[in-house]
Amino acid sequence: xxxxxxEKMRTRKAQVRQxxxxxxxxxxxxxxxxxxxxxxxxxxxxxxxxxxYRHFESKEALFAxxxxxxxxxxxxxxxxxxxxxxxxxxxxxxxxxLFAARAMRGPTMAWALIAEPIAPKVEEERLIYRxxxxxxxxxxxxxxxxxxxxxxxxxRLTSTCLVGAIAESLVGPLxxxxxxxxxxxxxxxxxxxxxxxxxxxxxLTGARR
Length: 209
What we know:
Helices cover 78% and strands 0% of the residues. It starts with 6 loop residues before the first helix and ends with a helix.
């Protein structure tokens, strides 16, 4: 008789897998991808190291999944901000400010998602999600052009530029070196966010915000 997995067993396996992911997420949030180790995750999840490899084919696969989950949360927040009522430039400014503010509140995880050197499989996910952010911005830019609140432009190219500008401008402030030696106080964080948003909106509209 062939073995048939019961619903109870499937539920238990799903719970173990989720616990592993939760613990891996916590490890990355604490120290980034490079410092997170499978043995550390296993100890935190209270499972054997071999159990992790029954759920994920490799360390890269585990952390690629952590990257997907963490980044999707941020993409969803940007999408929510862009879905609020108002003209496109205002919605874009709100979304950009939210992205930057969330990054500044969680610098270790933000650095891991935006700029930390990572394994190729995880880097593939980074490229996918940069495109996801750009697609969100592209739709808002197209709305702005249609409603007349933004000048005619190549929305796809501009949206890609927005993703690059905001990510690159946060690399220095989020870096572990900066965080360890001279983290920005809250007032300077807000100044930085305002400057980033102002630069991006000026690039979109051709006018200072």
